[in-house]
Amino acid sequence: MQPTTKIQPDSHDKRGDSTRFALIEAGLDLFGEFGFKGTTTRMLSDSASANISAIPYYFGSKKGLYLAVMEYIVERMQEHFVEVRVVMEKMQRSGPISRDQALDAMKMMIQSIAQLFVESDEPKAWVQLIMREQARPTDAFDIIYDGQMKYVQKIFSSLIAVCVYAHQDSDEVKLRCHALMGQILIFILSRESLLRHLNVRKLTDEHINLIYKILISHAEACLSITISDAGLKK
Amino acid sequence: MQPTTKIQPDSHDKRGDSTRFALIEAGLDLFGEFGFKGTTTRMLSDSASANISAIPYYFGSKKGLYLAVMEYIVERMQEHFVEVRVVMEKMQRSGPISRDQALDAMKMMIQSIAQLFVESDEPKAWVQLIMREQARPTDAFDIIYDGQMKYVQKIFSSLIAVCVYAHQDSDEVKLRCHALMGQILIFILSRESLLRHLNVRKLTDEHINLIYKILISHAEACLSITISDAGLKK
DNA sequence: GTCTATAGTCGGATAGAC
DNA sequence: GTCTATCCGACTATAGAC
Predict the structure, then answer these.
(1) pLDDT (tens digit, 9 = 90+) per residue, A100-144?
(2) pLDDT recorded at residue A9
(3) Are A184 and A117 in contact (CB under 8 A)?
(4) Inter-chain CB proximity A197 and B157 less than 8 Å
(5) Domains within chain B, CATH numbers bracketed
(6) CA dihedral B64, B68, B69, B73 (to 10 degrees)
(7) Residue B95 burial (CB < 10 Å; 0-12/13-18/19+)?
C-alpha cells in the first residue's frame, strides 16, 4: 500500500520518523480517551509537539493516523504475547497436550493477559480504543481482530477445550472462553465502579495480587465443571 | 433542582413532553453509539423528529440533555431490578439467609442482569454510554453510580459473601463480585469479537440460552471455592 | 411550543514560504 | 520536513417570527 504502514522509529532516527512516532503515541492516548471524533488534530499535534500539518503529511488524514495507531497496537500486543506463543507452539509440537498441561498454560495466559490489562494504567487508553471499535466496528476493527485478537481467542479456547473435554470449535467452548475473558477484562473496562466499590482511588499491589489469585482460582473452578452436569434446572 | 429531572411522558400527553421524551430516547441511542462529542445536536433532533432548538429549550444545552439521559437510564434500571429488590428485601427481613438461599438469589440476579445485557440489542447503546463514563468519568457517572450501580454491587457482594463465607465488605468479596460481573458484561461489551469467533452475524436463541447456562454454572463453580484453598502456588 | 435564520466558534485540511 | 496563514465546512446556541 504505502509507507504509511511503517510505524516504529527505525535505527536511523531520521527526524521525520520521530515526529511520526510521536503522533502515533499521542493518538494511542488521545483516541483511546476521547474517541476518534472527540480527539482533534490540534490535541494530537500539541501532545506530540508536532505541527498540525504533520498529520496530513505523514498519514494523509486524521483517519490515516487512526489506522496507523491500530497497527501499532497489534505490534505491541504481538510483542507482549510472544512468550505465550512460543510456549504454546512448543507444547503443541509434542503431540496432544494433557489436561494438566492445558491448565498450566491457561494460568500462564491469564497471568499474561491480566498483566496487560490490570497492572498499570498505561494500557488503559488503547484498551478503550479497542472497546470503542467493539461497540461500533469500523475498518479499524479488522486490523485489531485479524492481527491479534483472533489468535488469542484461538489458543484460549483450545486450552479450554482440553480442560473441559469438549471440541474447541464448539459454541460452548467459545462462549465459555468469552465469559472467562470477561472476568479479566472487566478490571480494566469497569475500573471506576470497582474503585468506588473498594472505596479507594487507586489499586494497591495487594489488590493486584488478589486479583490474580481470584482470576486463576475462578478459571480453575469454571474449568473443573462441564456444563451439562452443573446442576441446572432443566 | 429543576423540572429537567422529570423525564418520562406523563399521563397528560402534552406536546412538549413527547418532544422532550423523544429527545431523551434519541440521546440514549446516539450518545451511546457515538459518545457525547460524537453526537451532534442535528443528529439528536433529526432522530427525535424535533427541531434543533428544542434541545436548548428543554434541557438548557446539549450537556443538559446528556444528563437527563443518565437520569432516565437510572429510572429504567430501577424498574428492571424492582423484582430482584423485592425478593431480596423479603429474604433479608426473615433474618440471616442460608447459603442455598444466597445461591438461588445469585442465580436470579445473574439471570436478571444477563437479561438486561445479553438479550436483544436494545440496551446495547446505553451500556456503552455507561462504559464511556467508566473510562473517563464526568459528573454524569455519579448519577449512574449513586443512582443504581452501587445498589447492585451491594446486593451482589452480600450474596457472594454468604456463599463463600466471607465478609461482604472484604476486598476479596468485592473483587470476586467484580470478576463475576465481568463474565456477564463482556457479552454485551465485547459483542463484536464474540460474533466473529462464533462466525455468525447475530446471536440465536440457542446461543442466549447457552450463555445463561454457562453464566450460572460458572458462578456456581466460582462460589464453591474459597480463594485460600484454591491450590495456588504460594 | 415550534420554527427559520444566523451569529459565533472550532474543526480538518491545504497552500506555500522557509 | 516543518512552519504560518487561511479556507471552508460543521458545530452549538441564540434571536425572533409565528
Answers:
(1) 999 999 999 999 998 887 776 655 788 889 988 998 899 999 999
(2) 41
(3) yes
(4) yes
(5) 9-65 (1.10.10.60), 81-222 (1.10.357.10)
(6) 150
(7) exposed
Q: What is the DSSP string of A61-95?
A: SHHHHHHHHHHHHHHHHHHHTHHHHHHHHHHHHTS
Cell of B220: 456456581
> B150-163 and A191-198 helices cross at what angle (nearest 10)?
70
B104 at interface of A, judged by CB pairs closer than 8 A: no
DSSP string, B191-234: HHHHHHHHT-SS--HHHHHHHHHHHHHHHHHHHTS-GGGS----
8 Å CB contact of B153 and A193: yes
B15 touches strand C (CB under 7 A): yes
Residue B157 corresponds to which amino acid?
Answer: S
CA A89, B179, A127, B202 dihedral sign is positive
Q: What is the pLDDT of residues B160-203, one digit of tens each?
A: 999 999 999 999 999 999 999 999 999 989 999 999 999 999 99
Average the pLDDT over each of A45-49, A134-138, B30-34, B106-110 and give the range with the smallest value.
A134-138
A33 closest CA partner among B173, B227, B133 = B133
H helix or E strand, kind and range, residue A171: helix A171-189
Cell numbers found for residue B76: 429504567
